[in-house]
Please model this.
Amino acid sequence: MDNNKLQPARGVKDLIGDEFLQFQKIIDIARQTSSNFGFMEIATPIFEFTEIFKRTLGADSDVVGKEMYSFIDKGEHNITLRPEFTAGIARAFISNGLSQHVPLRLFTTGALFRYERPQKGRMRQFHQINFEIIGAKEAKADVEAISLAVLLANNLGLKDKLRLEINSLGDNESRAKYKSELVQYFNDYKNSLSEDSLRRLQINPMRILDSKDENDKKLLKDAPKMAEFLSSYAADFFEQVKAGLTNLSIDFIHNPLLVRGLDYYTHTAFELTTTELGAQNAVFAGGRYDNLIKIMGGQDTPAIGFAGGIERLILLSNLVIEKKQPISIVPIGEKAEFMADKLSFILRSSGFYIDLALNGNVGKRLKRADKLNAQAAIIFGDDELANNIVKIKDFATGEEQITNTSQLIDKLAIYS
Ligand code: HAM
Model:
């Protein structure tokens, strides 16, 4: 086989050793923290009909326009590997008739796929921890979702590394007004706008706020701000969210330029951002999506949610992984060796973590026990076996004791 083909494809990676343990720990912390808010875990399919994403994320969004892994399957269905969770979860909410159970708090995790240019913290296959509160129109739900994101960041040891930015994208009425103001403003600067922003001016002018182009950024300084065009409902809603955060002593920055890359958002948008990952500054991101479920054909169901990128969280957090410490079995002699297999099986069946080297003399086995940071070793030779006794050596205290095999499990209880 061509050696190049033995590499992983561009933008994907293997998770091995400590990195895998960090990955799992992040998911464990997400599961634990969100369960304290009443979140229930679900799993949705890795692929959906392409329409699910095309109709909801926005025809002009980078995700739909350039990044989806779409293909026609053998049954001629147009299929897409999920680039995000929310649209698939909204589909699941409708197909499973879950509307009588609102408000529903749903947690999910898994792999997602976007054909992006790979960079530090930006992959083509990546993973999220994702949270949705479905069927909640109250600003309290926004505060709850944001407070979960903040608490998660704290529990992942990122308290001082992330800052919370929020904005209101208003309702349909507010946005229609704002968009026409923005178009009017930028029409006067068409010659200085970047190519990307010029295109967005036609299709989705609010995405210009997100431009990374230095010249666009200068123009944005004097551009009209969304806050001035919020309807009274949207303005009041945003005030409630801010007051709710202040009530919880959660610090935030109102960033009037914060817009999201997906089109389904309304009202609250928020991100927990870092300066440590270069261009990939959002670690947790989300917002309210009051129209999505209705657009997909469901009942009018307001909702809010957010997701955190696990790869970015691994890069940022220095989670300490506690490695489980085994009990090492150290047989000396042929019969003892045979007995060691049986003893290991019995002890593993009783719930102990047992390490039994596949070969090697006593010295080598004890070295291995030391390397694995074993709690204790059970050492026995053929003679001990004949008398049904073994030696337990405790590595923390250095103490050794001889015990009858019938009492072994009781004696080992302190190591379980
Ligand atoms: P998003 O902003 O597209 O939102 O992604 C959320 C997070 O996923 C980002 O802040 C980042 O940490 C991570 N992420 C996104 N793309 C990549 C990538 N290519 N490589 C590595 N990490 C990445 C959503 O996906 C929304 N569905 C979030 C949401 C849930 N909104 C409401 N509910």
